[in-house]
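Lab manual, section 2.4: Encoding a predicted structure.

Procedure: take the sequence of the chain (174 residues), apply the prediction step described in section 2.3, and record the output as structure tokens. A sample record is shown.
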Amino acid sequence: MESNIDMNVENNSKVSRCPLGHVLNPNLANNLTRTINLNKNQSSEYLSRSSLGERSKVMLLKITGIFFVGLAILGVALPILPTTPFLLVAAACFAKSSPAMQKRLLANKTFGPLIYDWQKYRSIPRKAKRIALLTIVLSVCWSAFMLKSLLLTALVIALVIGPSIFLWRLPITK
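Recorded output:
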């Protein structure tokens, strides 16, 4: 297995990289490395020492994460369900409950970079932003065409204004 730490020749300090090869903040890298390197014995030992409430919370977060991964898989096939937001929720659940499952999500070649950029920079790629906004506009137009009611069309527009503004204001990944 390759090392995630390279020597920086210029200032003779260690440079850590995430599974995707991005350079990480040294403090974040140390915490991430410590978390990911927990082996099965350490995590089971930790769980046996922790309280019942803590174990229940970890289990609930794992189940919730798996549920949202399932919704994301459905979202790939069904155009109504989004995929990326469900994966972001799953990654957040796994960050608190299962570093191994979070690492598997980050290692995914399609969604890993999106999740990593969202967690690190709270940004999305320009292409994803365009697709999301275009999908919202087309959905509103289609709804207006199908509903043929001014009141229901206004309701649909009111419901998508918030998410549209949120997407519009998101920074773009560099």
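Check your result against the sample. The first strand starts at residue 5 and ends at 8.
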